[in-house]
């Protein structure tokens, strides 16, 4: 009935809870290739735990903190150990993409880190150029990463709630005029 990655995601959430979400988002934040699609795991987790705030909050926090930890590890590895994550086969970001990220950071500065983390497909790219070409401290980088990741995961949360409630149920939360508009 489910796609294999969704079934695997649900099994991980059932067995390990928010820890599974944390690990997958930390790996995604560290630019490591997708073990499981993080978006799929998150939405499946929201569906599995339900839509009550008490149940969803640990999943939300695990995703945001996991992504921030993963990106911070890359930032520190590049800054302190002169690591080149793009030289690893498991990192799906090439030099040409990092050049574009560097130009983005040069133009917009630290807010670009938050903005890039809020956009699927660019998440985490600015960890390497920020560490290489700036005097940004690790805590400031982590704060910008956290803000962008919270926006990204917040959007995923809205999708997860919509899936959990069904499209009509989600429109009903907006008010009766929206629920009857379709």
TrEMBL record:
InterPro entries referenced in this protein's UniProt entry, alphabetically: DedA_domain, VTT_dom
Domain VTT: 42-159
Keyword Membrane attached: yes
Ranges annotated as spanning the membrane: 6-29, 41-65, 150-174
Keyword list, A-Z: Membrane, Transmembrane, Transmembrane helix
Protein origin, superkingdom: Archaea
Residues forming coiled coils: none
The protein's name in its UniProt record: VTT domain-containing protein
Species annotation: Halorubrum lacusprofundi (strain ATCC 49239 / DSM 5036 / JCM 8891 / ACAM 34)
């Amino acid at each position: 009935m489910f796609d294999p990655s969704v079934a695997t995601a649900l099994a991980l959430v059932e067995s390990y809870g928010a820890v599974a979400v944390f690990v997958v988002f930390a790996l995604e934040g560290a630019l490591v290739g997708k073990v499981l699609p993080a978006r799929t795991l998150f939405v499946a987790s929201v569906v599995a735990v339900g839509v009550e705030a008490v149940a969803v909050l640990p999943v939300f926090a695990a995703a945001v903190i996991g992504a921030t930890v993963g990106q911070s590890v890359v930032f520190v590895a590049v800054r302190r150990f002169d690591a080149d994550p793009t030289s690893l086969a498991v990192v799906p970001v090439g030099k040409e993409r990092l050049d574009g990220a560097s130009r983005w950071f040069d133009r917009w500065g630290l807010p670009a880190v938050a903005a890039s983390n809020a956009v699927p497909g660019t998440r985490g790219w600015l960890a390497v150029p920020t560490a290489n070409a700036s005097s940004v401290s690790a805590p400031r980088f982590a704060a910008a990463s956290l803000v962008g990741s919270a926006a990204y995961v917040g959007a995923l949360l809205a999708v997860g709630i919509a899936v959990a409630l069904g499209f009509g149920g989600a429109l009903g939360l907006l008010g009766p005029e929206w629920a009857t508009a379709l």
